[in-house]
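Researcher: Next sequence.
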Amino acid sequence: MDEYYERRKKLVEKLKYEFNLNEKVVKAMIEVPRHLFVPPFYGNEAYNDYPLPIGHGQTISAPHMVAIMCNLLDLDEDMKVLEIGTGTGYHAAVVSRIVGDRGMVITVERIPELAEKARKIYGDLGYDNIEVIVGDGSRGYERESPYDRIYVTASAPKIPDSLLFQLKPFGKLLIPVGDFIQNLYIVEKDEYGQIHRKNWGAVRFVPLVGDEGFDD
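Model: Next structure:
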């Protein structure tokens, strides 16, 4: 148990009440030490519910946004999950605790320095069911497709066709869409490959940069 455990637990219990989180999400967020995923001088702010800068113009999402997205994904232990936008790796770490040893998280980051930082943290924590890929996340990662779940931690101009193609039937995709005005979309693929979209509501993320995203 680390020195921040009680603060982390208090934050997660507050989020559980506010957003009706399932127990799998609660357990994972209490387990994962968010303070290790932020720059050291922000360590004391790690369990406040807001985003923090991680360098290279990127941020670590607010805990409530990670909690909401994990809840909406309806994750199970044996799922293969694709994350777009690793950052320093916090969100994928939470997902990895939910899908467990029988599951796998593939996470794609376009900035090599952030990808390397995430790899180091995962190694230190012993989280060995996460693979970090450096590349254009707007195109997904076809080599390991199809995926049970896909989620994107940056806002796209539209839902990338590559991500829809890499999603399994009965799979679910979460993605923010928009520029100045952004909305989080819940996208589901049915047994016939048809796509169904639902607007969850307004959010705020950094832009998704890439071939099927925004220009750098």
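Model: The domain at 5-203 is CATH 3.40.50.150 (Rossmann fold). The first helix runs from residue 5 to 19.
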